[in-house]
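Researcher: Re-running this chain for the archive, since the previous output was lost when a drive failed. Same request as before.
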Amino acid sequence: MRAAMLLAAFLLAGCTLVDQRTFETHRSAPAPAALAALAASHPLAISDGAPGWPARLAVTAHDAELRDPALRFDLIAPVPLAGTEAARAAFRARQEQNLEQAATALEATGIDASRIRLGLRGDPGSPAARVELYAR
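Model: Regenerated structure tokens:
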């Protein structure tokens, strides 16, 4: 009997009582990494395909770089996941050219190429030919 009580006391020694502090929310500021992830999920700019769109993306990136010189930039272009293989390949080739144009425009503002990443993102619908600019 005494051994059972000692065993129970030993096992319960690591437990914590549940009270209102257990469910208390902490109202501290979000961690910088969480803020960076949130900022990266919203594009700084989206090209609209109008004449001069690469230059407008570049100006936006340059303005952001003036506020934070350590920024890195992602240029993302959506490509369709549906449709014929030939149509998808043609759209992908067009988007790759758009990405190259945008990267060249960013580099022309003085942003080093090592701070620019290019990427394609699959879209289940019929995306417009556009390039999205993200900062991280």
